Amino acid sequence: MSELLNFNYPPEPAVDRVTLFADVILPLPLPKLYTYRIPFEMNDEVLVGARVIVQFGGKRVLSCIVADIHENAPAEYQAKYILDVLDDTPIVTAPQLKLFKWMADYYMCTLGEVINAALPSALKLSSESRIQLHPQYNPEEDKIPLSAQEEKIIFALQNNQALTFTEVGTLLQAKSYHKFIKSLIQKEAIIIFEQVSDKFSPKVVKKVRLSEHFVQEEGMLEELFNQLAPQPKQLDVLLNYLQKVPVHQDLHLNYKGLEKSVLTSNPHLSASSINTLIKKGVLEQFDQVVSRFPVDHEPRQLPMALSEHQLQAKDEILGLFKEKEIVLLHGVTGSGKTEVYIDLIKHALESGGQVLYLLPEIALTAQIVTRLMKVFGDKLGVYHSKFSDNERAEVWQGILSGRFQVVIGVRSSIFLPFHDLSLVIIDEEHEASYKQYDPAPRYNARETALVMANLQGAKTLLGSATPSIESYYNCKTGRWGLVSMTKRFGEAQLPDIELVNTRDEQRRKAMHSHFSGQLLTAIEERLQREEQVILFQNRRGYAPFISCDECSWIPKCKHCAVSLSYHKFNNELRCHYCGYHERMPHDCPACGATTLKSMGFGTEKVEDELKLMLPNAEVQRMDLDTTKKKNSYQQIIADFETGRTNVLVGTQMVTKGLDFENVSLVGILNADTIINFPDFRAHERAYQLFVQVSGRAGRKGKPGSVIIQTRDPLQPIFRKVRNNDYQSLYEHEIEERMRFGYPPFMRMIRVTVKHADEQVSENAAIVLAKDLTDRLGKQQVLGPEVPYIFKIRNLFLQEIHIKLPRENTNLKAAKAQLAQAIFNLKLLPDFKGVKVVADVDPV
Questions:
Q1: DSSP β-ladder status, 354-358 and 406-409
Q2: Model's pTM, two decimal places?
C-alpha cells in the first residue's frame, strides 16, 4: 500500500479519449463530495454505487462510494487519481443513493455520516497506521546514530515487513513510543503508510470427500476396504464417512462431501487417522463458503388461515392501496395483526417484489423471526445490531444477489440495498425506538421508510394498537388510509384492569417492599395455576441511586449531571448516560457513616425481592443489562415460552408485541414516573405503554388481568386505559397540540449547544438564539434553556427549540438559515470549540 501512496500514473498518450472524474462519498463528515480522476484503464471499471480506494489528505487511504461519474474537473483543486476499484458491481443501489441524499438534506448532516451509518463495518475498509524501513535506508551501511529503543524498532523491521503502532508499543513495552517513531521519521530511517484491508470475509468450513477415482472407477472402493483392513482406526473413519454420505446410493453426494468437524468431533474416531487418510489421498480436504444463517430451503408451514375479521382487514388494506400509498392498521393488542402482515407479504412475493418488515426492538425479532422462517424459509433475512459485522454484510450481499426477498429488522434495516421493494411494514409504528439519537444521522426510521417506499414505488403499512397522534391525524385528514381491527383473535378478551392506590396501601402498612398485597396475592394465585406473569418496571438496575442516612450524600457521575444507579449484581454504581462506573463504597465518602441505603427500585431489585418472597418461582429479567450478549434475547424469550420461567421482569422490552399464550397477569409497578415526565408527549406515551404491556395478558382464550400500582388512581389517563379508549386520548391530545403549537401542526428542530465550559455554552446559545430569532422570527425560536440533564460526558448543554408551521413554511429555506447561523457562530473566536447539534423532528 506504500507503493499506492507514491504511485504516479504514466503520462497518457496524445490520443482522443475521454477523461472521466468521479464524485465520491468519503466516510467523513464533509459538507461536499470530493472529486477524483479516473485512470483511463479504469474507465469501464469505476461504477456509480461501487467502492473505490482513494488517498485523502497527506497520508490517509480510504474506501468510499462513487456517487457520480462525469467529465468536469474540479476548479478549486487538482484531482488525484483513484487508486483502486473494489467492486465489480455496485454495492449501493440507485434508490439507496437517492435516499441517502434525502437523509443528509432532511436531517441536516453530511452524506459521509449517512454512509458511515449505512454500510456494515465489514464492507468498509480498515486503515491502520504502520511503519516500514525507508526504501533509501540501509541499516548496515547508513550509520545514523540511534537510541537503544530506536535500534530495537529497526532490528524488528529487518525481520518484519511492517509493524503497526500497537506492535511498536508492545515491542518497547512503553506507552510513550510515538516520540521514537517521530525521531526515526526525521532521520529518514522509516516511513509511515496505511495498510488497507477489506474486512468482510465469507464463512468457510473445511469439508472432506472420497477422492474421485474411488467412487468413479469400478471395484476401487472394494479394493480400498481390503487395503485398510490392517488399519482398523482408518477403516472406522471410512465406514463412518460412508454411513453419513451413502455414495453407493447416489454418486453425486460425494461431490458435496461432509464437514470435517463431523468426523473430528466423533470421540470414537481417531483425529490422526483422519489426517492420515487425507495425506494418503484417500480423503480429499477442501474449503466451502457457507451461509452464516441456517438455511431452510422449503417452508415447513403454510400461513395460518385468516379469521373472518383478519380477512376483512386484509381486503380493506389492499383496497385502500389502490388509491393510497400509506395505510395505518389500528388493531387492538392480540387482534392478530402479524397474521395479516404474513398474508400481505405472501401476496407481495407472488408479485415478484421485495418486502421490508420493520420492528422497533431486537427482542421482538427473536419471536417473530421464528414464525416467519416457518412460512418463508430461506427467502427471509434478519438484520440488527446484535449480528456480527460479517453476518450483516452477508444479509447486505444476499439482498443484492436476490437471495433474501423478505427482510425483518430494526431501524438500521432502512439502509439495506433494496432494488425492487413493493411493500414496507412498520410494526408498532408509534415507538420512539425508531428514532436514532446519536451519532448523526439522527433519523426516524418510520419517516425514512416512508420516503424509501415512495422512491421505489412501494406501498407502506403501519401497524399499532396505540398509533402515534401524528399518524392518526394523517388518517383523519385523509392523507393515509385507515383500517381498524377492534376484536382480539379467537376467543380472547381484553384483560380486566385493576388500579391499586399505593399511598393507601402504605398508610395501611399493606405494602410488601414495592409490591401491594393485591399484586403479590395475584402472582401467587397464577403460579399455583401454573400460569405466567409479566412485571413491568420502567427503570433498570437495582436502585436509581443510593444515599447516606446521616448526611444525605448521593454519589454523582463525574462526567454527567446525574446520580449514579446502583447495580447489585456487579456491586457497582453506574451512569446510564456515559457508562462511567465505580465500586459500591462501604462507607460514606463525605461523613464516614456506614448507613448507605438504596433509594427507589429498578428491575434488578424487583427480581431480587421476588425471588426472596416467592422462592419456588422461576424469575428472569429482561433489560439492557441482561441482553448484552448476541443470543440473550432469544434465550430469555425461549425460556419464558417453554415455561422454564414463571415470572418475567422487564423494562419497555416486555411491552412490545410479544405473544405468550400462558400469561394471565401483568403488573405495572410504578405507573406515576411514566405519566409525570416533562414532555408534551408524556400522556400519549404513558397510554401507549400501559395499553401495550396490558396487552400481553389474556391471549389464546385465557382470561387476563392487569394490576397497575399508582399513588394517583384518579389520573384521567387510567380511565382511558381501562376503557381502551384511544379515540378519547387522540381528541384531547390533538386539541392541546393545536392550542400550544406542537406536532402535527408544527415541525420542530431541537438545537443543542455543547461545551466543556458552562459559561461558554450559555453565551454561545444566547448568540445563536438571537441570530435565529432575527432570521426566523420571534414566534419560531424558543430558548435557550438548560435541559433537564444539563451535563453529559463533561459537556454542558443548552437547548434552543425551533417551531415551524407545517403549512406555508419553506422548510428547506429555514434549515439553510439554521445552518448559516451555526456556521457564523463557529466563526466567532470565542466559540470555535463549541459543538452544535441539530435534531430534526425530535421525539
A1: parallel
A2: 0.79
- Burial environment of residue 120 by CB neighbours within 10 A (0 to 12, 13 to 18, 19 or more): buried
Amino acid at 359: L
Which residues form the domain of 13?
2-90
Same domain flag for 676 and 700: yes
Say yes or no: 166 and 142 in one domain. Answer: yes
Burial category of 712 from C-beta neighbours within 10 Å (exposed 0-12, middle 13-18, buried 19 and up): middle
pLDDT category at 168 given cuts 50, 70, 90 is confident
Residue 567: its H or E element: strand 565-567
Structural domain count of the chain: 7
- Rounded CA-CA distance 427/180 in Å is 57
Burial of residue 681 (number of CB atoms within 10 Å: 0-12, 13-18, 19+): middle
599 in the Ramachandran plot: left (φ > 0), alpha (ψ -120 to 50) or beta? Answer: beta
Specify binding-site residues for Zn(2+): 548, 551, 557, 560, 575, 578, 588, 591
Asked whether the beta carbons of 126 and 196 are under 8 A apart, the reply is yes
State pLDDT tens for residues 433-489.
999 988 999 999 999 999 999 999 999 999 999 999 999 999 999 999 999 998 877
- Return d(Cα 507, Cα 727) in angstroms, integer: 36
DSSP-assigned letter for residue 605 = H
| 348 and 264, same domain (yes or no) | no
CB 622 within 8 A of CB 654: yes
**Nearest to residue 224, comparing CAs of 285, 284, 277?**
277
* Known binding-site residue numbers: 548, 551, 557, 560, 575, 578, 588, 591
C-alpha to C-alpha distance for 582 and 575, rounded to whole angstroms: 9
CB 104 within 8 A of CB 110: yes
